[in-house]
Amino acid sequence: MKRGNDRTRPSRRVRPARDTAREPRPARDTAREPRPARDSALRRVAREARPFLRARTGAILRLAGWSLLEFAQTFLSGYGVARALDDGFLAGRPATGLLWLAVAAVAVLPAVLAARGVFGRLADLVEPLRDGLVRRAVARALSGALGRGGDVSTRSLSQVTHQSEIARDGWAGLVLTLRSFVFTAAGAVTGLLALSPALLLIVLPPLVLGAALFVGTLPPMAARQRAYLAADEAYAAHAGELAASVRDIAAAGTAEPTVGRSRALAETQLAASRSLARWSAVRVVALAVCGRFPPLLLLLGAPWLLRNGLTPGGLVGALTYLTQALAPAVQALMTMLGTAGGRLVVVLDRFTDAPPPPADAPRPPAADGSPPPHNVARATPVAELHAVSFAYGPRAHPVLDRLSLTVGAGEHLAVVGPSGSGKSTLAAVLAGTERPTGGAVRWRGRPARPADATSVRVLLPQHAYVFSGSLRDNLRYLRPDVGDREIAAMAQAVGLDALLSRLGSLDADVEPERLSQGERQLVALGRAYLAAPPLLILDEATSRLDPAAETRAELAFAALPGALVVVAHRLSSARRADRTLVMDGPRTRCGTHGELLRSSALYRDLSGLWEPEDEPDEADATPEPKAPEEERPRGGEQAVTATPPPSPV
């Protein structure tokens, strides 16, 4: 039933708990806490990069294999020019000179053809990185949303939509540039050694000096890049709060301070961007030292080199290496490291604090040190409420008032009560989608954690979720590895076989608007049956089924090893349950059907408003039939959830 019918819930207009703009921020955000200086961002990223790269050693080797063609092309470009001059044109043999030039020119063709292989192997390194980052960001967003009662982290949103693409593009550019630099520099250095080892005395000093100057700018650039991303996230978070609070801001007349806050955040982001740009300008000097000084020094030292055995062809070949291969490769590498490389390290570092997959806490050993017996898990309750209270607002009357409840493994519990008594609220608290204002919720003996929710429970509300796609995809939504044989057994057990026959096959397209509400509930029930969670909570999830179909589904779920909690739509659900919890606001009573008839006046009232029906055979059960008037209970179809006559409090 609808939660808006809870009698103790305040009006939607005055509910303060939903105002995200005014919601107090957590006192501690571990994702943004400063880390020890010794554990730098580069070290953290390198720690996680090593297993990623080890797992893709084959792709790296194939990429290097294709890049060997670029090494050969670089080597032959300068060496061919040198030989064309010394052995050809200067020696009076133009044919030999033309032949060496042709060799240098033809060497370009394999390198061009290798580009296809390089980009094919590049995808094997880039796409898995981006997919892994998105999974981390989504895991953080889901964990944060469950932990804050549905508030999606704007930081995770920025990571999924913006920062993951920065990492993807930066990683792709870095791999291409680094690969090109390594094999181009190797080809150029090998060619210089082949021409004259003395050339390295001229070329290496400016390269080393420029590289040192460039490396010196990396730490401040990384700090400025991190500050820029933090300012971007802060502005995105502020914009998200404004979008959810425009009406409140206008009503409270706080537009001016809000605009001031927005302006301050924008100016902070602008200042961070300018600081980043200033440090980028410093790198121009390092690029000039690496790219412009080696050819200049080579020309200045040419007389000395020629006197010490360097041939004219060797001098021209060295200039070819420096101007056509080595200088462009160094400049491209420094530009990439200075821009995309810095962003890449900072962005990847912001993904390193994603929450790891939840690990089950080790079970304590026995008193004698022996391992725990196999039946310990079975003896541990699936879910427990310890003096749980819940109210929709600080001054609202509690819907749950110090309620304690234990749901054992394999138990079938029904929850009944009049409209507004808090049944749906209890289901939400038990499932962890609402946090209690007092008390504790435990799952399988441990405090309930949002990260464990998907592995512990499945909550089915009254309005079933069915998406456009095949019936198979809808049924396997919670368990993608399920086979057709299990789906067929589920359809027979839950009562989905009639819908399956009507659609024709599991691969038939499902259009939610063409299904009745009862059929949608059957699809959701089938999905939950295949998932077989330790705790299944049906919050009127069978309200659109006829009594026979409801009975069939509940009996199928009761046969599963997990615990079943049913917020009852009909009192027949209570008769089938092992225990029944009767709710009347903060007042509750739990027991079997017979015990409650003797001890609970409210339960007797609900039973008096309902007459047992002659339930049709299960084979004839179809969703949403309209029973003849004389077969309906006197209290109406919703008799078990209808508000009874007022009783003294």
Overall description:
By secondary structure, this protein is an alpha/beta fold. The protein is built from 23 helices and twelve strands. It has helices at residues 41-54, 57-89, 94-106, 108-147, 154-195, 199-216, 218-244, 246-252, 255-291, 293-300, 302-307, 312-351, 376-379, 423-431, 453-456, 471-475, 484-494, 497-503, 517-531, 547-558, 571-576, 593-599, 601-608, and strands spanning 383-390, 400-407, 412-416, 438-443, 446-447, 457-460, 469-470, 509-510, 535-539, 563-567, 579-584, 587-591. The strands form three sheets. Strands 6-9-10-3-11-12 form a six-stranded mixed β-sheet, with helices on both faces. A hairpin with a 2-residue loop joins β11 and β12 (587-591). α6 (199-216) packs antiparallel against α9, α6 (199-216) runs parallel beside α12 and α22 (593-599) packs across α23. Mean pLDDT is 76; it is low at 1-38, 147-154, 354-378 and 611-649.
